[in-house]
Design goal:
Aspartate Aminotransferase, domain 2, 7-stranded mixed beta sheet, Aspartate Aminotransferase, domain 1, 44% helix
């Protein structure tokens, strides 16, 4: 939408809400629908081409409003996670509509998804150990649990271990900043030999510092063999896997127990919206299942398709921390339909192309260097020279307020990160940003040259 259409549609939506409030007394308090009613009312996959706003809004009235108190929230979420799972070509084990035991849920952030996975893995491991050693206490087992993640992983993984009360080890990476099988395998063997119980590994596809990719096709078999829960955090980069040319980076996902991406980072969905899939939903719901009287209803434990045997299957309050849940799947439904799969793929490809343009500009200037492979929309670069020089450049960039860069450290060096992620970003913005950076760097280098000249 352009600004004019956005204003018009916004006013229409206010009228929609006002009409609902004005006529609310004429609506049923309790919905007259059966579990699974929604799936048959909409297609089983996201459209390839964009659909009209009018069609989407009509479907809100036709599909959503009959279940608005509020099974529609859980049911649309379940179907939208299947839509997105199919767009990503996830194994059927992760989809709700198949004969597997998995499914998807929307968490608030990737940090929540990682925490949910770690806590679920902790409970599963404790129960497994107690089956073979009933006299062993939960506290004793937890004190011996150990988790793993890349030294390049987001800090939220370490935070999850703190909340979960378990030890975590940072796994060193190779020259491409990726975790490899032999390194993890060695660490697991060492820890088992000293009495620890390896139970959780968080792999990263698209690390925060430089968008590196752990080798999950190597790491997955090790985790499976050692009964280690493998969670894949692909918060940013995972969105790009809807493009066939990037999908090979997800090869090995079949070994994972859980997987998450953030559609609010690279799929044009507003914050917050973190999509999480689990291979066995019971592993998740067992960890967080509560059953007070005030949460019971006549469809307690009901589900549909493969989930008929699993209590609380579509009741998403048992899939995470919050008891009250926002209707975040509406955002996915609107975006998927108004852009279509091809529109979303085009958006991602454009941003990757713009990042490549910036990379080429950096490589064409002898004062700068590229610090990591550019795979998607993130470019890691720096001025050739000291960390202090690069910190000074970043300080100047921030002070002028024209563009905003966030730094990182790679192999101990201070590095600048340029990310293409705005919906309206065009080539001219990349060119203007580079012009601004080079002008500031030239001033900085000239001042440094003048200062050294005076000292000599």
């Amino acid at each position: 939408m352009d600004a004019a259409e956005f204003r018009r549609r916004g006013k229409e939506m206010v009228d929609f809400v006002a009409d609902y409030q004005e006529n609310i007394e004429h609506r049923r308090v309790y919905p007259d629908v059966e579990p699974g009613y929604l799936r048959s009312m909409i297609p089983s996959e996201a459209p390839l081409e964009p659909e009209s706003y009018e069609d989407v809004l009509r479907d809100v009235d036709r599909v959503i409003m009959p279940g608005a108190a509020n099974p529609a929230c859980s049911e649309l979420e379940t179907v939208m996670l299947d839509w997105l799972g199919k767009m990503l070509q996830l194994p059927e084990d992760f989809l709700s509509e198949t004969q597997g035991q998995g499914g998807g849920v929307i968490q608030g952030t990737a940090s929540e998804a990682t925490l949910m996975a770690l806590l679920s893995a902790r409970l599963k491991t404790v129960k497994c150990v107690q089956e073979s050693d009933p006299q062993r206490s939960e506290a004793d087992i937890i004190s011996k649990l150990i988790a793993y993640t890349s030294e390049e992983a987001h800090s939220s993984v370490e935070k999850a271990s703190i909340i979960g009360g378990v030890v975590i080890r940072m796994v060193p990476t190779d020259e491409h900043f990726s975790v490899r099988a032999e390194t993890l395998e060695k660490m697991v063997a060492e820890d088992k030999a000293t009495g620890y119980i390896p139970f959780f590994f968080c792999a990263t596809l698209g690390t925060t510092p430089c968008c590196a990719f752990d080798k999950i096709d190597e790491l997955g078999p090790i985790c499976n063999a050692e009964n280690i829960w493998m969670h894949i955090d692909a918060a940013y980069a995972g969105c790009a896997f809807i493009c066939p040319e990037f999908r090979p980076l997800l090869n090995g996902v079949e070994f994972a127990d859980s997987f998450s991406i953030n559609p609010n980072k690279f799929l044009l969905v507003g914050f917050d919206c973190s999509a999480m899939w689990v291979k066995k939903s019971a592993d998740l719901t067992r960890a967080f299942q509560m059953d007070p009287e005030y949460l019971k209803h006549e469809h307690q434990g009901s589900g549909w398709c493969n989930h008929l045997h699993q209590p609380y299957s579509t009741h998403k309050i048992h899939w995470g921390i919050p008891m009250a849940r926002r209707f975040r799947s509406l955002k996915l439904w609107f975006v998927f339909r108004m852009y279509g799969l091809r529109g979303l793929q085009a958006f991602i490809r454009k941003h990757v192309e713009l990042a490549k343009t910036f990379e080429n500009l950096v490589r064409g200037d002898n004062n700068f260097e590229i610090c990591a492979e550019v795979v998607m929309g993130l470019v890691c670069f720096r001025l050739k020279g000291s960390d202090e020089l690069n910190k000074a450049l970043l300080k100047q960039i921030t002070r002028t307020g024209k563009i905003y860069l966030v730094p990182c450290k790679l192999r101990g060096r201070f590095v600048l990160r340029f990310v293409v992620c705005g919906r309206t970003t065009e080539l001219r913005h990349i060119q203007e940003a580079w012009k601004h950076i080079t002008e500031l760097s030239s001033e900085l280098l000239q001042n440094l040259f003048d200062h050294e000249g005076k000292e000599n």
